Every structure is written in C-alpha cells, then in structure tokens.
C-alpha cells in the first residue's frame, strides 16, 4: 500500500476544504461529509479518504498519476495551450484572464494531463482531468488531448485509461467546446477498431458533456464510492420536474444499481482492480484466433429456414 498514490505532503487543498479558515493549514482538515477533524498526515496516508466516514476527497491530476508504476509516466502533448476564439468576456473578466489565473494557480496548461505509463508493468495510455482547473470543463485542448490519447493508444496497441471529473463543456469556447464530445467519441471508435479497451474511471464530480459522451461508452466504467455522476445537477432536475428525486440520486451506487456503470471501487483497491482488468485484456486470444473461435461457434448454431 505504501507504493499506492504517492500523494503530495502539502496536504489537502481541494474544494472539500472550504470551511477550514480557523484550522491551521499544516495540521488538520475537516471532512465535508462527517465534519470530523482529521490529522492531515493521517489523511494523506489514507489516500485522502476520510478514516471516519470513508468520504473520498478529490485528488489532483498529478496525484491520480500515482496509480502508475513509479517513474513510468511520460507526459505527451504538454505543448497544447488553450486560446480565446470568441474573445469571451463575462462579469468584467475575460476568458484569457480566467485561463491565466487557473494556469498560475494549478501549474497546468489546461484541465487534462495525458501521456504513456504502466500499471504492474503493463503499458497503457492515460488521460486525467483535474477539477481544480476551471472545473475540468471540456474545451478545445481538453478534447484534443483526450482524442490524441485514444489515437495514440490505438497506434501503440495498448489500452486507454481515462480518469474523468468535470462540470461539463467549457462555455467560454461555445460550440468549439461542445464539439469535443463528438471528436473524442469518434477517436475512441479507432481505438475499438484496433481491438484495445477504454477503461473509464469516474470521480467526483462528473457532470455535463463529459458524462454524456466518451466515458459512458467505455468498455469498462468504474466509479469511486459516493461520486456524483450525471448530466444536469440534482437541484436543476428537481426544479424542472417539480418533484423530489430518489435518495442517493446520481451517486455512484445509484448509477451501479441502475446499470449505468460496471463497478464501484474504493480508492485503496483501485490500482489492483486496474491491474486485474489490464491482465485480463492481455490474456485475450489474438484477433485472428478470436475470429476463428467465433466462426466455429456460429457453425454449431441451427441454420435459418429459407
């Protein structure tokens, strides 16, 4: 477990830390779920999962890369930078200024880090979203990195792992942001044609155009416990429908119960589960052998009456 998620010792600085103004930053964290105080070192050692209630706090993209074998990750497409195609301005702040602030705060060029790595020695391509960068909204660079990751996986003949968190399409890029849904999904068809799997991990929160597109057509869809997953938010749906939604609506467990995802996996078990899935896909027969097996099975079926 010590090799799991080599988390930064800077401690938790995500959205769940909103009411810690009276708590020394270098010692304690208040869980947003159970409201208990947690010693920061204990929280980091527990992979940022609350030891009191099991609440999975958010990880940065760099922290998620701790799933990979030590030293195996090689970043790709780091030179892609977002632009301001619409000259968008809202509330007296331009999109360009908002981007600059996000880049300075996070140290990232945009909301996705992508590249090549390995889990338990098995090579794969990976693309990870970071909610701290403008809510991991899907703009042109986000979509381009995801599409290139899928195409690279197809070219290399390796699986693709996407770790997805988002508030949806990036409104400041208008239709350019919206078109990324189709672009990434089409890139994944080339991955499927190459016979390689797409494993999508959904982490809290995952909403809007991201949920509505490429993660939902993955070969295996995994979610963390308690992750909020959906298209529109629960409050908006209740206002439109004018009725109360079921308890647990849009949680990972609700999605599993209703057949929208394949499994809910705790963070402490995530690396082992991914390694098992990758190993299973590696053990598949070669494409020619699978075709022969399918033809043999079809030959045993009753022939249609003409």
Could you tell me the CATH topology label of the largest domain.
2-enoyl-CoA Hydratase, Chain A, domain 1
The name of the CATH architecture of the largest domain is Alpha-Beta Complex
For the record, what is the CATH homologous superfamily label of the largest domain?
Answer: 2-enoyl-CoA Hydratase, Chain A, domain 1
**Distance N to C terminus:** 61 Å
Order of helices and strands: EEHHEEEHEEHEHEHEHHEHH
- The total of helices stands at 10
Largest sheet geometry: 7 strands, mixed
Q: Which of globular, elongated, flat, extended, rod-shaped describes the shape?
A: globular
Word description of this protein:
This protein is of the alpha/beta class. It has 2 domains: 1-57, no CATH class; 58-283, Alpha-Beta Complex (2-enoyl-CoA Hydratase, Chain A, domain 1). The protein is built from 10 helices and 11 strands. The chain has helices spanning 40-45, 61-64, 95-106, 140-156, 174-193, 208-211, 234-241, 252-257, 267-282, 287-299, and strands spanning 28-30, 37-39, 74-76, 89-90, 93-94, 112-119, 122-129, 160-166, 198-206, 220-223, 263-264. The strands form 3 sheets. A 7-stranded mixed sheet has the order 3-6-7-8-9-10-11. Strands 1-2 form a two-stranded antiparallel sheet. The protein has a two-stranded antiparallel ribbon with strand order 4-5. Strand 8 (160-166), helix 5 and strand 9 (198-206) form a beta-alpha-beta unit. Helix 4 (140-156) packs parallel to helix 5. The longest helix has 20 residues, at 174-193. The protein is globular and about 65 Å long. The model is unreliable at 7-18 (pLDDT under 50).
């Amino acid at each position: 477990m010590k090799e799991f998620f080599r988390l930064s010792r800077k401690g938790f600085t995500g959205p769940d830390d909103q009411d810690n103004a009276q708590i020394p930053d270098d010692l304690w964290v208040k869980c947003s779920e159970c409201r208990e105080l947690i010693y920061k070192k204990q929280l980091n050692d527990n992979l940022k999962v609350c030891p009191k209630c099991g609440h999975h706090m958010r990880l940065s993209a760099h922290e998620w890369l701790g799933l990979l074998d030590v030293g195996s990750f090689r970043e790709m497409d780091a030179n892609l930078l977002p632009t301001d195609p619409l000259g968008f301005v809202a509330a007296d702040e331009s999109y360009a200024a908002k981007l600059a602030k996000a880049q300075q705060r996070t140290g990232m060029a945009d909301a996705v880090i992508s590249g090549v790595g390995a889990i338990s020695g098995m090579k794969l391509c990976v693309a990870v979203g970071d909610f701290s960068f403008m809510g991991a909204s899907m703009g042109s660079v986000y979509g381009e990195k995801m599409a290139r990751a899928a195409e690279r996986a197809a070219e290399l003949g390796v699986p693709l792992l996407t770790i997805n968190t988002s508030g949806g399409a990036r409104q400041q890029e208008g239709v350019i942001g919206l078109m990324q849904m189709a672009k990434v999904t089409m890139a994944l068809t080339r991955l499927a044609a190459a016979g390689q799997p797409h494993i999508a991990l959904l982490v809290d929160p995952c909403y809007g155009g991201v949920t509505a597109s490429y993660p939902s057509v993955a070969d295996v869809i995994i979610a963390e416990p308690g992750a909020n997953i959906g298209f529109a938010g629960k409050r908006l749906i209740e206002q439109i429908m004018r009725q109360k939604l079921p308890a647990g609506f849009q949680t990972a467990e609700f999605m599993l119960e209703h057949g929208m995802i394949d499994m809910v996996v705790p963070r402490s078990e995530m690396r082992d589960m991914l390694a098992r899935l990758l190993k299973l896909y590696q053990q598949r027969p070669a494409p020619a052998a699978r075709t022969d097996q399918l033809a043999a099975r079809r030959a045993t079926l009753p022939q249609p009456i003409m």
